[in-house]
Amino acid sequence: MPPLANPSAVAYLLFDVEAIADSKLVGDVRYPKDNLAPADALTRYRAELMEQNGKDILPATFMLPCSVAVAKVSGDFRLIDVVTLDDPKYRPHVITRTFWQGWKHYNRPVLVTFNGRGYDLPVLELAAFRYGYSIPEWFNVNAISYEQSRNRYNINSHIDLLDTISNFGAYRVTGGLNLLATLIGKPGKTSIDGSKVQDMYDTGQVKEINDYCRCDVLDTYFVFLRTRVLLGRLSLDDEQKLVDEARAWLDQQSEQHPAYKHYLEHWGDWQPPVD
User: Fold this and answer.
1) Does residue 231 sit in helix, strand or coil?
2) Which of 1, 48, 55, 235 has the most CB within a 10 Å radius?
3) Pairing of strands 10-21, 63-74
4) Neighbours of 83 (CB within 10 A)
5) Tens of pLDDT along 209-260?
6) pTM of this prediction?
7) Tens digits of per-residue pLDDT, 8-30?
8) Pairing label, strands 158-160, 110-113
9) pLDDT at 195
10) Distances in Å between the alpha carbon of 67 and those of 1, 109, 221?
């Protein structure tokens, strides 16, 4: 992440991970006696998952990050910047290292995700394990339990917006981030979703995956703002001012990042109800 003049200005890092399968690992773990080529092992496993679940999304344990988009947000919830890591090479080991180094560089700001506890963070934690990266500030297991960074209820370390909305899993948020973004007039899923990432990667569409990841982070940001209204941390008027600021910033950046132009083309203004 490119450093800011004042790293302490970053209070939140909102992020989203897109990942692709480690096909060799799939073969080694799932089919050790079958001597399958990595691509064949992945094809077989995806077919099994589709038959069992109706979806061929692999568990996080078999995945490598191919895209991590990060939104830097100030303490007053203002959007500062959005970046994709290791652009334009998008190497999993560099993405992983840069993410954790960036978190430390910005003085360990609060991480914000949607379902990051169930997917995005496990992908990045297991990648750190795989590559031998040390992150004791995150795995601070000797701290008091409720002060440990990975404690589910430690919202000073990580806010999972899925936990916020679902009361830590008390009910299923059917529709997910797409539904929540749509409720407040933001684009949500337009042409791509996570189920398409593997096939896109296999056909060389890595840049398009990273553009999609940027848009997911933007949806996360706007859902984050509305949850701050819900929690009484922001007034609705202040939220709308921040939304307007972010929209203007996206418009300014759209020449450099065409993904933002696509995002704005699917923008729907939200209006509060009138009695």
Assistant:
1) coil
2) 1
3) antiparallel
4) 17
5) 999 999 999 999 999 999 999 999 999 999 999 999 999 999 999 999 999 9
6) 0.94
7) 699 999 999 999 999 999 999 99
8) parallel
9) 76
10) 13, 20, 17
pLDDT in tens, 75-126: 999 999 999 999 999 999 999 999 999 999 999 999 999 999 999 999 999 9
Q: Could you give the C-alpha distances from 267 to 2, 147, 188, 198, 219, in angstroms and in order?
A: 28, 39, 9, 27, 11
**DSSP letter string, 78-126:** -EEEEEETTTTT--HHHHHHHHHHHHHHTTSPEEEESSIIIIIHHHHHH
Cα(264)–Cα(258) distance, rounded to whole angstroms?
Answer: 10
Q: Give the total number of structural domains in the chain.
A: 1
- Enumerate residues 6+ apart whose C-beta is below 8 A from 255: none
How many Cα atoms sit within 13 Å of 51 on the Cβ side? Answer: 6
Whether residue 97 lies inside any domain: the answer is yes
Widest distance between CA atoms in the chain: 68
Residue 196: pLDDT band with limits 50, 70, 90: confident
Decide if 270 is inside a domain: no
- The continuous run of DSSP H or E covering 71 comes out as strand 63-74
CATH code: domain of residue 11 = 3.30.420.10
Spatial CB neighbours of 114, under 8 Å, sequence gap ≥ 6: 16, 160, 161, 162, 176, 177, 180, 220, 223
Contact 23, 33 (CB under 8 A): no
By residue range, what is the domain housing residue 119? 7-265
Domain assignment present for residue 272? The answer is: no
Q: Which pLDDT value is given to residue 90? A: 96
- C-alpha count within 13 angstroms, C-beta hemisphere, residue 193: 12
Measured distance CA(96)–CA(128) in Å, rounded = 7
Find the Cα–Cα–Cα–Cα dihedral 68, 208, 181, 222, rounded to 10°: 50
